[in-house]
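User: Predict the complex.
Assistant: Input components as received:
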Amino acid sequence: MKDKNDRYSVIKGNITENRIELFVELIKQASTNLPADVVLALEKQRASEDEKSQARRALDVIMKNIDIAYEKEAPICQDTGTVIFHIHYPEKESLGLLKKELRDAVKLATKKGYLRPNAVDSITGKNSGDNTGFGSPAFYSDVWEKDSLEIKIMLKGGGCENVGAQYPLPDTRLDAGRDINGVKKVILDAVVRAQGKGCAPGIIGVGIGGDRVSGAMAAKEQIFRKLDDLNEDEKLAEVEAEMEKKCNELGIGPMGFGGKTTVLGVKTAKLHRVPASFFVSVSYMCWAARRKKLEITGNQYTIE
Amino acid sequence: MSNNIIQLKSPQIKEEDIRKLKKGDIVSISGVMVTGRDVAHKYLKDVFIKNENIPDEEKPILDELKKHLDGGILYHCGPVVNKDENGNYRFSAAGPTTSIREEPYEYDVIKLLNLRGVIGKGGMGDKTLSACQKFGAVYLHAIGGAAVYTAERVKKVIGVLKLEEFGSPEAFWIIKVENFECIVTMDSHGESLHKSLLEQSEKKQKEIMTTF
């Protein structure tokens, strides 16, 4: 048994020749150890719910589950989701080799039970059994000027992915125009449509503008942000705070049982758009917001 | 709504015991239940409900399912399953999956298997609610994402059907559970917590939108 008080500490160590084991550790950490900011936000909300409410009971179970998953090194949720890697790599790194190592790590992590076999052929219906396949795992990569290698991982469950949405503005049903109030209306609507189905309380990532792909991408990238960070854009920071408050007035509550805690946070980004299009993309992340970051500098690494 | 926990022993749960349950009640289930999700529901409908001539090789599957599900409980779950050192299957993570995807099938599945309950998350629609009323069943909500906590209530894997064909998350896992707690969110009297909360939150949404 592990001591749950250690769970927030940054893992540090030296790189060995075989990086696959380290990548398996990254996956294990993502699957079994929820980020500190998410645990703290859940704990804070748990305390705010009425003691005898279903909301409180749900959050009690959620907190217990987080502890047991860490202690037993078992997946927090059985839906270990789509395995998504965001990579920033230095010029000298071979991206091809890195992807191969990460793919091998995904197979190994599946075998070890940190990931459920989740890659299903969309035509034959056959599960590949090891989480690899066309577009699986998902890689997004960019070269950067730093010497270090950064690999961020997100495990995005299917239930919450299904309740994500993309709204072209204007939206007649919601009377949502092409302005910031229109954006706010559709964010609120996405949370109402989701109810408890995305495993509330969720984290709402929003991409304002862009095209259908870049907007959705920006929405999902927001989920990598820590809950307590502040948007550098002052206007967006205001929108985030306001929408978090308003979403929590909806009364949907944990699991959709009713209560004060419907979202843990709203995170937004803006992209330029063509004059003809105005998309608002919403990505819903369940409370089990499994994300971790591995950084390798020289022969040292950190996972947090 | 009471905070007393009502014990249920599955399968062979009596209809009258289900009829006593009300939206908001907490139940604790011990006994045997079976997992089934997207592929399983489509299979049940395609092979046993729509099909006039059931293929001989599929008949034993239905018999086996009925053995564990007559008056029993179907669990919407795609578990993480490991094998222990003795080669026995063991659930390590087994929370509920989103149930609404089974809405097109559940009415017929409840009827076919004589289910007394369905466990999942997120709730289901009017058609399932009407099946609960008509056949005497309830929709039970487990805590989504609380997968290790829930897996600890699974004491034993008794068997598995269609593992090769459906893949591990989609297979019918026959499991023995103890004190598996759920909340009744849809009862057999036409009451749904999901429906009432949707209405309330939509009303609130309209109010908030006037401030934008």
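The helical segments of chain B are 15-19, 38-49, 59-69, 103-113, 126-135, 147-151, 163-166, 193-209.
Let me know if you want any component modeled separately.
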